[in-house]
DNA sequence: CAAAGGTGTTCAAAAAAACGAACACTGATT
DNA sequence: AATCAGTGTTCGTTTTTTTGAACACCTTTG
């Protein structure tokens, strides 16, 4: 818990794509409150902080627990994937540098113009995938990148995310979900 | 996080055997501050709360995370232990009703008058034991009980605790530590 | 019994945080 | 170019929290 409360709030808020005013409106506080908190010019009361977080929504315990960007990689270039080939089929490991992986990979195909929307669904666990054909725009928190064949992604599913097929044909992806059971 | 901040602080403080004034002195705040917080008459700023917790000491994340009395049993009567006997030796399972047990049992013998002292050492993990011979006074947080042969204990080691041989002879105990490796 | 040291609580004054309304800036739309 | 809606910031006022010094109560000590 070395990080300042203001910094954490700022990081969390921008992760959810909310402006100070938008969050203030949802939380029922003024934008100046959030502004001064994020500048660490004031230390909010626990009630105030809880009230602000309710606008996200996020619990106090999650706010203090969540690690915001642990420095691990999110995007991998084709040549950064680790080859686990057994000879007949090629299996390239995504996120090999990450510790404590807990997920299972699947196959998916996006129709032209396919889009999960910006509802920014959040769920426990992790998510990863490889683009096979087409162009997929992946949004993870504030980071956005258009990935092509051979590229891949790996991120914490707690961070709001979105997928969009920005190519003119189908987009084939090897995707994954966690926990491994489903 | 349904519980109020004041209630949590009060529970944590009394667990550590500190008075409002003693905690106030260690934390560098006034006793009235702690009094009003514990009555939920005010909502402390995050800084203030952290300052108070530093006097325990306890981190913010631990404060919000720790479950203070999860309703699970701490003391077990002799007949409440689950028999895991293999025929030659009798193995009675302590805390069978508890989920996610992570510990390993050992043997110990306390000399007459033996006492771990009230330094209230705190450590991650869980701790359990069975009294074989003698009388052992076990203090866990606010709860105190004198256990005799066949009785047992099981508690979260994060709660301050103390053992004292209150009998006139040796006290034999089957004790345990966590994690299992040591 | 009375004094001393301990507990938690209460109240007016001082300090800190939240509000409310402004400001300055940016990018998009006329 | 000018308006508009958006962003984050700043400042005086209002509200809330913290302080400091009392209070009432209890237990121990002389």
TrEMBL record, chains A, B:
UniProt cross-references to Pfam families, sorted A to Z: Cupin_2 (PF07883), HTH_3 (PF01381)
GO molecular function: DNA binding; DNA-binding transcription factor activity
SUPFAM superfamilies, per the entry: lambda repressor-like DNA-binding domains (SSF47413), RmlC-like cupins (SSF51182)
Record-annotated HTH cro/C1-type domain positions: 9-63
Keywords assigned: DNA-binding
One GO cellular component term: cytosol
Keyword set includes DNA-binding: yes
Record protein name field: Cupin domain-containing protein
């Amino acid at each position: 818990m070395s990080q300042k409360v203001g910094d954490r709030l700022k990081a969390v808020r921008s992760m959810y794509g909310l402006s100070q005013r938008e969050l203030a409106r949802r939380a029922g506080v003024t934008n100046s409150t959030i502004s001064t908190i994020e500048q660490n010019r004031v230390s909010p009361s626990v009630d105030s902080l809880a009230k602000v977080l309710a606008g996200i929504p996020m619990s106090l315990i999650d706010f203090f627990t969540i690690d915001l960007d642990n420095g691990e990689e999110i995007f991998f270039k084709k040549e950064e994937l680790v080859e686990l080939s057994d000879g007949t089929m090629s299996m390239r490991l995504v996120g090999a540098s990450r510790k404590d992986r807990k997920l299972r990979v699947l196959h998916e195909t996006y129709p032209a113009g396919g889009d999960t929307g910006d509802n920014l669904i959040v769920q426990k666990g992790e998510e990863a995938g490889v683009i096979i054909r087409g162009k997929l725009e992946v949004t993870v928190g504030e980071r956005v990148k258009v990935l092509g064949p051979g590229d891949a992604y790996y991120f914490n599913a707690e961070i709001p995310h979105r997928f969009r097929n920005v190519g003119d044909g189908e987009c084939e992806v090897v995707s994954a979900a966690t926990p491994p059971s489903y």
